[in-house]
């Protein structure tokens, strides 16, 4: 009780983190207690604070997601206990070095008030084991501490611990984020959205023209998220005829059809615990759409030829280059599935909207292709870069990649020149947006974002934007934004 009272008395986030680790050290009799908290983008798990041999210390900010043991415990949302650390094969470089060595370890994921994973407690001891019964108390105390921490942060007290900037998404060594290249505002918006879904299982719908990086983003959501240690399976829905796609996705039982000589599990089973990427979802046949909807709603699959369903835990990321709502209007795509899939849409910008990213992408593809061709890296002459910059690219990143590969094959030396670049004669005016189209785009994005923030509630959205509701509805209709009501949105979520 005194420990709880000490937490309640803290007035600053960092004081509270210190009070938490020192109380838990006392409670568990462990010489080391570390507190890791996910950053705002959920892409890093910095060490915020630790208790070590009788002293509290500010964390180093070292990213715990780089440690496979910690990433595993976090992604599984389950306590992890290792009692014979000295004989374990698991690497534990996140534990401070010293003598005598650590011999037991306990990782406890922490949930916040919304039951979202928010961090991890790590306890380590130099004795042979840690009391297993501790996990329930740790989870409870952690939740209370997190709620208090959240309240202190919301009260505007600045967190002084050396954690990374809260609003910045994690960045990679190259010019971009999550393994993607590009720093244009359009790509920054993509990174912001990706960071929101990394550590929760929400269904994501990726849109954007062909070759704009939808599959790459789907992989990034998986690779940088809490399911990274589980399988990522991709299936193109337009690549197979209906019956083959059905058996591929749902699996079958022996005798389900001629040639089904044995049971076979489907891709939902193969992706269990991980992510299933359904590309070209707009081409999925209507009958299969109904089956997919059932999986999304009930989390259960029924293999062909079986009368029993079983549960699966799969995060769906779907992608399409088509206007999916247009498909709904034409009766080619189920409206209920559309709403179910589009809980969290992310649209990839075409290349023509990425400005200076084109140069970075070109340099990246040059390095990548040279490595592939096993030749030393080629430099770009200023004139070739200027030529590239003068070209108005259409939407497709894959085309740019192909263009660079061709240029490298044509280039005998180590310097790329304009003549190596065979830039297509793009009918530029066809891709240039008029002022009206650009304004519509900005307005569409703003309305979509505000609606999303208010769970599709049109009255609140209209209030926030200072519009009469009727005007909002008119503008939504004009911009092709589906007019679903909040009840419909909630209905679709059930
Ligand atoms: N931001 C990016 N950074 C690095 N490479 C990229 C980026 N965007 C796209 N690419 C590359 O462009 C190519 C096409 O990307 P991808 O296959 O993900 O596009 P897509 O939108 O899924 O295509 P499709 O619509 O044909 O399925 C890939 O080789 C990918 O690596």
Salient structural properties:
494 residues; alpha/beta; Beta-Lactamase; Rossmann fold; Helicase, Ruva Protein, domain 3; 19 strands; disordered C terminus; binds adenosine-5'-triphosphate; transcription; phosphoprotein; P-loop_NTPase
Notes on the structure:
The chain is α/β, with parallel strands linked by helices. The protein folds into 4 domains: 2-154, GAF domain (Beta-Lactamase, 2-Layer Sandwich); 176-347, P-loop containing nucleotide triphosphate hydrolases (Rossmann fold); 354-431, Helicase, Ruva Protein, domain 3, CATH 1.10.8; 435-493, Arc Repressor Mutant, subunit A. It contains 19 helices and 19 strands. It has a 6-stranded antiparallel beta sheet, sandwiched between helices. Helix 1 runs antiparallel to helix 2 (13-28), helix 16 packs across helix 17 (458-465) and helix 17 (458-465) crosses helix 18. Residues 157-173, 426-431 and 486-494 have low confidence and may be disordered. Adenosine-5'-triphosphate (ATP) binds at residues 180-182, 208, 210-216, 279, 321, 361, 397-398, 401.
How is the topology of this model organized?
Layout: H1 2-9, H2 13-28, E1 32-37, E2 47-52, E3 55-58, H3 68-76, E4 80-82, E5 104-111, E6 117-125, H4 134-154, E7 176-177, E8 180-181, H5 185-197, E9 204-207, H6 214-223, E10 232-236, H7 242-250, E11 251-252, E12 264-265, H8 267-270, E13 275-279, H9 286-298, E14 300-301, E15 310-311, E16 315-319, H10 324-329, H11 335-341, E17 344-347, H12 357-372, E18 379-380, H13 382-390, H14 397-410, E19 415-416, H15 428-431, H16 435-453, H17 458-465, H18 469-478, H19 486-493
Parallel strand pairs: 9-16, 9-17, 10-13, 13-16, 18-19
Antiparallel strand pairs: 1-2, 1-6, 2-3, 4-5, 5-6, 7-8, 11-12, 14-15
Helix pairs in contact: 1-2, 2-4, 12-14, 16-17, 17-18
The structure holds adenosine-5'-triphosphate.
Domain Sigma-54 factor interaction: 180-409
Pfam family, one: Sigma54_activat
Keywords: Activator, ATP-binding, Cytoplasm, DNA-binding, Nucleotide-binding, Phosphoprotein, Repressor, Transcription, Transcription regulation, Two-component regulatory system
């Amino acid at each position: 009780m005194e420990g709880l009272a000490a937490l309640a008395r803290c007035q600053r986030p960092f004081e509270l983190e210190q009070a938490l680790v020192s109380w838990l050290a006392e409670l568990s009799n462990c010489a080391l207690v570390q507190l890791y908290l996910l950053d705002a983008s959920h892409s890093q798990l910095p060490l915020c604070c630790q208790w070590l041999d009788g002293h509290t210390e500010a964390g180093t900010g070292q990213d715990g997601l780089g440690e496979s043991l910690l990433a595993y415990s976090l992604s599984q949302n389950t306590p992890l206990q290792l009692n014979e650390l000295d004989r374990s094969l698991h690497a534990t470089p996140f534990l401070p070095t010293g003598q005598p060595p650590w011999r037991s370890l306990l990782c406890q994921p922490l949930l916040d008030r919304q039951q979202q994973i928010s961090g991890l407690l790590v306890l380590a001891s130099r004795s042979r084991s840690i009391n297993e019964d501790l996990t329930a108390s740790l989870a409870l105390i952690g939740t209370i501490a997190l709620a208090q921490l959240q309240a202190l942060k919301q009260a505007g007290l600045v967190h002084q611990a050396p954690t990374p900037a809260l609003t910045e998404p994690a960045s990679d060594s190259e010019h971009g984020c999550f393994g993607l290249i590009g720093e244009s505002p359009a790509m920054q918006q993509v990174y912001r959205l990706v960071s929101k879904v990394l550590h929760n299982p929400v269904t994501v719908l990726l849109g954007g023209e062909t070759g704009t990086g939808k599959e790459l983003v789907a992989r990034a959501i998986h690779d940088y998220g809490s399911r990274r240690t589980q399988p990522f399976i991709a299936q193109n829905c337009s690549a197979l005829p209906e019956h083959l796609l059905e058996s591929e996705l749902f699996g079958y039982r022996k005798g389900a059809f001629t040639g089904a000589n044995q049971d076979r599990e489907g891709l939902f089973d193969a992706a269990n615990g991980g992510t299933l990427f359904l590309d070209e979802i707009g081409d999925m046949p209507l009958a299969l759409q109904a089956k997919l909807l059932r999986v999304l709603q009930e989390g259960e699959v029924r293999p062909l030829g079986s009368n029993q369903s079983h549960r699966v835990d799969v995060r769906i990321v779907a992608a399409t280059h088509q206007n999916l709502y247009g498909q709904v209007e034409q009766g080619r795509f189920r409206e209920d599935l559309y709403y179910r899939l589009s809980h969290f849409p992310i649209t990839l910008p075409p290349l023509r909207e990425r400005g200076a990213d084109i140069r970075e992408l070109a340099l990246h593809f040059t390095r990548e292709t040279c490595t592939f061709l096993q030749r030393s890296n080629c430099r770009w002459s200023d004139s070739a870069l200027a030529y590239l910059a003068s070209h108005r690219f259409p939407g497709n990143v894959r085309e740019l990649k192909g263009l660079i590969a061709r240029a490298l094959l044509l280039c005998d030396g180590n310097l790329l020149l304009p003549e190596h670049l065979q830039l297509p004669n793009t009918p530029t005016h066809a891709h240039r947006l008029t002022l009206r189209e650009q304004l519509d785009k900005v307005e569409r994005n703003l309305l979509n974002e505000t609606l999303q923030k208010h769970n599709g509630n049109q009255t609140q959205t209209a209030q926030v934007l200072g519009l009469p509701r009727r005007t909002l509805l008119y503008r939504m209709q004009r911009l092709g934004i589906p007019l679903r009501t909040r009840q419909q949105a909630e209905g679709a979520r059930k």
